[in-house]
Amino acid sequence: MSDVIIDVQGVSKAFGGIQANSDVSMQVARGGITGLIGPNGSGKTTLFNSIVGYHPIDAGSIKFENREISTLKVQQIARLGLLRTFQQTRIYGKMNCVENMLISMPHRKMSLWDALKKNTPEDYERADQLLEFVGLYEKRFLLSGDLSFGQQKLLEFAMALMNEPTCLLLDEPTAGINPTLINGLIDRLKRANEEFGITLFVIEHNMRVIMNLAETIYCLAHGEMLAQGTPDEIQNDQRVIDAYLGAH
Amino acid sequence: MNTTRNKIILYAAILAVTIAAPFLFPTYGTQLATLWLMIIVALTWDMTGGQMGYNSLGNIFFYGTGMYVAAIVAIGMYFNVGAYTDASGGKLFEFTRHQYFVGMLVGTLAAGVFCSLSAVVIGFLTFGLRGPYFAIGTLGVAIAGGELVANWDWVGGGQGIALPVYPGDLDQGKDFFYFCFAITGVAVFLFVRWLYQTRFGAAINAIRDDEEKADAMGIHTLRYKLVTWAMAAFFVGIAGAISAFQLIHFEPIETAYQTINLGIFMVVCVLLGGKGTLWGPVVGAILFHVIKEVTWNYFLGWQWVALGALIIVTVVYFKDGVMGYLAHTRPEWFGIRVEGKAGEKAS
């Protein structure tokens, strides 16, 4: 657990006069599940976007596998194996689920020559397996745009797994999913972590979910890192409770 | 399966018609050759416009450039280009039969390669633009290309270049150019048919539908965009080269970099037939060419009005084109399935 895969040191980011992140430091342990919580507007998504190269940061350093990535672009970071899903789910709505999966083949591991080949039967099999894994196998020939929002989130998760990332950043994976599906999703996230060995870094609003899922939790408030610790420590941290109840 | 057999029969029938057409309708030889040209430019336009979501209005640049590169290379192999264009293709410079065909072959290949490379350079500068900005940016490139060449005396300036006439019987020459276009057209069709089935094809579809997501998934978006356009430009350059020899004389603005004619026609063909489909550009090119020739023959004076009306009706009321409409109403023809039965292989 001591092996750090994402190392964020002193990151600041402002949008005009609004300081979205100030001097944020945190680490994501390789092979684990790390959570990021915080009230609305506390800068969670900004931190995510900074890590995946969506916008330049004002100060600080971000390292992925000991490599400075704060100056790289989105594609370059994605090609290192650090992948993200979107809060507003993004899938290819005019294609069916299988096509969505095949588009998500890990192109970063392909030369142009490999890309000019057809998908192999193994690729199709893997797509089917992962769709089965998230419970969308029966719907695999439906246009993904016709799926419910929750199913689209599951599809996006399956697409991310198809891409074989080293580390996956999930932005509110359970938002908009009905409560009965949430338990299944927690289970699948844990299995993805254990069986596929993918490091997960999860933003989550649902306290029950994050407490069940993560081993280490960071809490942001007003753009600053407020607390970190195990789920138990976070739950009993007075500063965290104050932040959520609005004592600030 | 039955569908496979039907497909083979369909392809065989098309091939038979292709080969027999110039002999069945000898008076329409040049028309049929032009039809194949339309099919080539429509299919290649759809590679970026329909499959990758980059609507280029500048593909005509590669057509014109292909013409010029082929002509300059073919002439330059045997003569001084400046002296040749000064004489306006007068009788001072005669190609032998052997020189004509070797010059044409080398010139055509050179045109394809040069256009590919120029697509990479232009693409590097313009692929940062999106949507209508890309269309206008590339249109600017095509117009600028025509103006530049028109002011370059070494290649004949505004007068253009006159190439040698086909050495031999002129009717045989018509068939020769027909088959040059037909073979290129079939090659382009088979090429894109294969390309759209590869992972590369899926990746450019991903760029079309959501480029940001494609970036976030680690797809090499810029590389794939450049390669796609370079492939398209290769074939357009070759088509331009064949046109140059077929037309014998061409000039820069009206013939080579003809933005308002062929440059727009190729887009209309694709829209009419169905963007982003394999057969759409082919069907669209045939329909458009027939409509265009009919209006030219029977509504002379009104032909541009008729074509304008066709464009408006297509864009406003018939966005999906013929193939898109059929895919909606007859999904089973396209093998589109909605619910898969358990245990069935994904296809």
Can you describe this structure?
- Chain A is an alpha/beta fold and 248 residues long.
- Chain A is built from ten helices and ten strands.
- Chain B is mostly helical and 347 residues long.
- Chain B is built from 15 helices and two strands.
- Chain B has a two-stranded antiparallel ribbon with strand order 1-2.
- In chain B, α1 packs antiparallel against α7 and α3 crosses α10.
- Classes of the chains: A alpha/beta (248), B mainly alpha (347).
Question: Which key phrases capture this entry?
Answer:
heterodimer, A: about 250 residues, alpha/beta, six-stranded mixed β-sheet, four-stranded antiparallel β-sheet, 10 strands, about 35% helix, globular, B: about 350 residues, mainly alpha, 2 domains, two-stranded antiparallel ribbon, disordered C terminus
Summarize the helices and strands and which ones pair or pack.
The complex is a heterodimer of chains A (248) and B (347).
Chain A: E1 4-15, E2 18-29, E3 33-37, H1 44-51, E4 59-64, E5 67-68, H2 74-79, E6 82-84, H3 97-103, H4 112-115, H5 121-134, H6 149-162, E7 167-171, H7 179-195, E8 199-203, H8 207-213, E9 216-221, E10 224-229, H9 231-235, H10 238-245
Parallel strand pairs in A: 3-8, 3-9, 6-7, 7-8
Antiparallel strand pairs in A: 1-2, 1-4, 4-5, 9-10
Helix pairs in contact in A: 3-5, 3-6, 5-6
Chain B: H1 2-24, H2 29-49, H3 60-76, H4 81-86, H5 97-126, H6 131-150, E1 161-162, H7 170-195, H8 199-209, H9 211-216, H10 221-247, E2 249-250, H11 252-256, H12 262-273, H13 280-298, H14 303-317, H15 321-329
Antiparallel strand pairs in B: 1-2
Helix pairs in contact in B: 1-7, 2-7, 2-10, 2-12, 2-13, 3-5, 3-6, 3-10, 5-10, 7-10, 8-10, 12-13, 12-15
What's this, in brief?
The complex is a heterodimer of chains A (248) and B (347). Chain A is α/β, with parallel strands linked by helices.
